[in-house]
Amino acid sequence: QQPLDFLPNYGQVLDNAANGSAAAMVNFNQNDPEKRFTESLFLVSRQGEEEELLRVSGSIRDAQFDPRRRFLYVLASEQVDHPRRSRLDTQEYREQPMLLVVDLEAKAMTKLATLAQETDQYMSLAPDGRSLLLDVTRFEDAAEEASANPGADLGPGLWYLPLLASADQSAPVLDRPEPFPFGGIHATWLP
Fold it and tell me: How far apart are CA 62 and CA 92, in angstroms?
């Protein structure tokens, strides 16, 4: 087998499977007028086989394989309409962040949680794949907005997210997310 020289369609590698068999890569869709202003998440095998897993109108921020390479956890966002305060206001660009899981065997995607807008997110999957650390940090210029997102499941803070395997072997579900009583920046599991 020849190693892949270069994958020009992709602008970012988010994660590699532990066994090196595949990578999660982002295509910014700049060369396709039909997909412009979207981002696509691809699963690329070591043989160069490409499979689009997800396309969003916002951004794809992170993706991490579980240890068995069955699930891919994704931090992504979709563009949402933001109401204008008056007729003179310009249209604002806002993204609604979310935590997703992609079942790579069943080719199915499930939304695990909706996150607060105007935040920066960072996740770290536990080495055993049974839980996530999620760091949701509010942007400084958004701190003055006292109103929280009414649709957000998880607001700013450091969160412990236990993942329960479902009985039918489909995607895991969140089991009572717990906020830590302290803050953190890019919290990461120790191996």
Answer: 24
How large is the C-alpha radius of gyration of the chain?
18
Helix intervals (H) in 78-177:
none
Q: How many residues does the structure list for the chain? A: 191
Q: What is the pLDDT of residues 145-176, one digit of tens each?
A: 434 455 568 888 899 999 998 767 788 988 89
Contact between 66 and 19 under an 8 Å Cβ cutoff? The reply is no
Count of CB atoms within 10 A of residue 60's CB? 25
pTM of the model: 0.85
Helix (H) / strand (E) containing 94:
strand 94-103
**44 CB-contact burial (10 Å; exposed 0-12 / middle 13-18 / buried 19+):** buried
